[in-house]
Write a sequence for this structure.
């Protein structure tokens, strides 16, 4: 019996994993998090105040207080049965990393004790040599350290065989270069805070802090684990490199609002409960468009926390799925021909006075404040669309962008009819002076149209990579498996820079004698004119948009190696350096790491294709050919004329043709890889992997393999088919 048929049999006879009846969410929420409320209980006054000051105002915690805090955290963790702790960080590999240490230690005289001192809380030295550093460690010092990020609370991960205390940390080299996603993210958020507060102060002197907010929507597929585990491509690359389209795909669109299957539902309830314990405020769960595709979304949070929660969730989902004998696919394009996975990043900014800066306000003043941040966002996306594009570039996302129901690689902004009209009105006032009496402009009457505005937004924004959705922008082109820190670093950085320049321009008009509001209106108008070509309200999936975008001069870079160029332009260096987010060494290192990741991913996919072709596809095809030829020989021997085995001969011929092509193309692909491997310049090598390996061979080989799948006896086919993975659970 083939592994495939065994997996199918187990799937059909398998039993369900029972789940505890759903606990009340409020009863378990944050149970495994060292929240401020918990800190209040477990810390001394001094410790608590110091922690609070560090969270709220970024104040440094001194060593003595750190000892008190670490003791409090240990007491809490031990009360929950924790024995080990780890510095939890987000290296550039795209996953999370942990190195577990136990509280257990021996005193000088050999007495065993449990200990977790302030030094262990604040700093650790994982062996950094195996994490990507893009040559930084080679150039500088070979070691790095993790450092506590007090703004993200410690939490406890529960595994079946133990509990671990996780301390969120940044990961930096000894020479200070960041080696992870969190360090630059914190810097970008700080840059935004600074620029945004200054601009807010035009309108409200009481604003002292601006926090960027993020609400992600995570899409994923869930399939049977047994079936997934006998697909070497899913195991090794996260996507199916082969697989013929099933008779029924998503054409009926019956999955979207359908009911959630029992087994998946049990899994959801289970991972949600675990997420709630970790303080991840999940709110929605629903089916997505493709069969077996779902989405989870939380209530939005401050960006740093939201990013931690998203990486944690991806981890929790993957782990909990195993308990239900399910397999979660977070890849951007697990199955060809049907929708891929995205991770929409809903983003806005909030002041410490409680104002959402992207919510159209009710009074003229707040309207103008809204308009300022709204137009600055459009201007930022216009000026730095290449930087945003680079931030979402990956081998996996290349499969999705521009494919089925996915935004194109062209970055444009959707604002909705109503706001498009508002912008137009402001723009056409050229020559016309904005004067203080101009109530109409300052008021804009935005508030009266809000319901209309939201209606207008529900549907048509779906095809836009960057859409305004009523009180936030939604960056829809982010890869589902990506760490959303990368897109958030870029977005907050470009916003920080744009606001900074905005402030300069407004100030200089004020100096020349303009009244503040008038100066602001003038710069807003200028920005609208300068950035209007990035606005697009039509169908982003259409071919016409590609032509139109080209006419407008908007970049459309479909492949990662070239999209990444935008990370190291003079413009990008200035952007990131002047806002203290990356220095040029870090940028170049990151550029190199991304190229390296790209090359490796394509290389692995190519190898997996070769492996599957030679060890699965061709053997299955040959077995069936043997059956057919034996049959033909027997019929011939029995004296039947050829007209009676023409079908068999025809199938045999077709199989031979496809099989020969698969074999020779796989062989040629190996040669192409050898040539690419000899290229020393990493960018040229990545481009070669894209054009000479991926683009030249992947689709072609797949085409013939998928033809074989249609021709070969189902009983001989060893790989689970799309119809099985997508519809059985
Ligand atoms: P829709 O996708 O239909 O607009 P919601 O309005 O509920 O649905 O929002 C979707 C996501 O946007 C949720 O994750 C939500 O938390 C997030 N979101 C809502 N408001 C904000 C905000 N001000 N900042 C960041 N994210 C937000
Ligand atoms: Mg949405």
């Amino acid at each position: 019996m083939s592994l495939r048929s065994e997996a199918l049999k187990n799937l059909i006879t398998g039993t369900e994993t029972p789940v505890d009846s759903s606990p009340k969410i409020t009863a378990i929420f944050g149970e495994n998090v060292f929240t401020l409320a918990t800190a209040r209980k477990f810390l001394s006054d001094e410790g608590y105040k110091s922690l609070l000051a560090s969270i709220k105002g970024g104040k440094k915690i001194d060593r003595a207080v750190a000892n008190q805090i670490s003791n409090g955290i240990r007491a809490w963790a031990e009360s929950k049965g924790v024995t080990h702790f780890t510095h939890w960080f987000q290296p550039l590999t795209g996953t999370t990393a942990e190195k577990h240490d136990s509280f257990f230690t021996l005193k000088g005289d050999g007495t065993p004790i449990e200990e977790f001192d302030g030094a262990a809380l604040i700093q650790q030295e994982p062996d950094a040599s195996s994490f990507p550093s893009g040559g930084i460690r080679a150039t500088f010092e070979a070691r790095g350290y993790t450092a506590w990020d007090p703004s993200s609370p410690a939490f406890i991960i529960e595994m079946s065989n133990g509990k671990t205390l996780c301390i969120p940390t940044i990961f930096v080299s000894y020479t200070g270069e960041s080696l992870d996603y969190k360090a630059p993210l914190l810097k970008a958020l700080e840059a935004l805070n600074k620029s945004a507060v200054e601009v807010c102060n035009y309108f409200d002197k009481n604003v002292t802090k601006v926090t960027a907010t993020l609400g992600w929507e995570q899409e994923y597929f869930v399939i049977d684990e047994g079936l997934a585990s006998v697909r070497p491509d899913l195991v090794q690359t996260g996507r199916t490199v082969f697989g013929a389209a099933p008779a029924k795909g998503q054409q009926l669109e019956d999955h979207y609002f359908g009911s959630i299957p029992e087994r998946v539902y049990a899994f959801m309830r289970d991972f949600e409960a675990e997420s709630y314990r970790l303080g991840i405020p999940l709110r929605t769960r629903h089916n997505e468009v493709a069969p077996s595709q779902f989405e989870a979304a939380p209530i939005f949070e401050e960006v740093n926390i939201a990013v931690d929660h998203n990486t944690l969730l991806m981890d929790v989902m993957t782990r909990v799925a195993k308990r239900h004998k399910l397999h979660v696919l977070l890849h951007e394009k697990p199955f060809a021909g049907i929708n891929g996975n995205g991770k929409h990043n809903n983003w806005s900014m909030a002041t410490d006075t409680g104002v959402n800066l992207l919510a159209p306000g009710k009074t003229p003043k707040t309207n103008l404040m809204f308009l300022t941040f709204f137009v600055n966002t459009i201007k930022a996306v216009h000026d730095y669309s290449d930087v945003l594009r680079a931030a979402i570039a990956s081998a996996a996302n290349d499969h999705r962008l521009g494919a089925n129901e996915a935004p194109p690689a062209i970055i444009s902004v959707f604002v909705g009819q109503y706001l498009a009209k508002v912008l137009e009105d402001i723009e056409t006032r050229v020559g016309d002076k904005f004067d203080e009496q101009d109530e109409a402009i300052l008021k804009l009457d935005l508030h009266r149209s809000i319901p209309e505005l939201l209606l207008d937004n529900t549907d048509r924004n779906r095809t836009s990579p960057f859409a305004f959705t009523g009180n936030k922008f939604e960056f829809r082109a982010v890869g589902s498996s990506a760490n959303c820190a990368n897109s958030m670093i870029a977005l907050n950085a470009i916003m920080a820079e744009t606001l900074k320049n905005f402030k300069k321009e407004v100030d200089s008009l004020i100096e020349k004698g303009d009244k503040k509001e008038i100066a602001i209106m003038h710069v807003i108008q200028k920005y609208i004119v300068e950035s209007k070509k990035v606005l697009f309200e039509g169908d982003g999936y259409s071919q016409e948009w590609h032509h139109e975008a080209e006419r407008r001069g908007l970049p459309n870079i479909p492949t990662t190696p070239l999209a990444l160029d935008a990370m190291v332009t003079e413009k990008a260096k200035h952007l990131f350096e002047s806002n203290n987010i990356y220095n040029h060494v870090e940028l170049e290192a990151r550029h190199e790491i991304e190229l390296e990741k790209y090359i490796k991913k394509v290389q692995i996919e190519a190898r997996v294709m070769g492996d599957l072709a030679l060890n699965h596809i061709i053997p299955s095809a040959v077995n069936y050919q043997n059956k057919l030829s034996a049959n033909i020989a027997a019929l011939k021997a029995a004296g039947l004329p050829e007209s009676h085995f023409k079908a068999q001969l025809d199938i045999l011929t077709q199989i031979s043709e496809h099989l020969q092509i698969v074999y020779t193309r796989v062989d040629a692909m190996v040669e192409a890889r050898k040539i690419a491997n000899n290229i020393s310049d990493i960018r040229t090598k990545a481009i070669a992997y894209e054009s000479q390996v991926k683009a030249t061979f992947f689709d072609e080989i797949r085409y013939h393999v998928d033809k074989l799948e249609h021709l070969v006896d189902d009983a001989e086919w060893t790989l689970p088919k799309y119809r099985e993975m997508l519809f059985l659970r």
Notes: The chain has three domains: 31-180, 190-582, 597-727. The CA atoms of residues 533 and 553 lie 8 Å apart. The two ends are 21 Å apart (CA to CA).
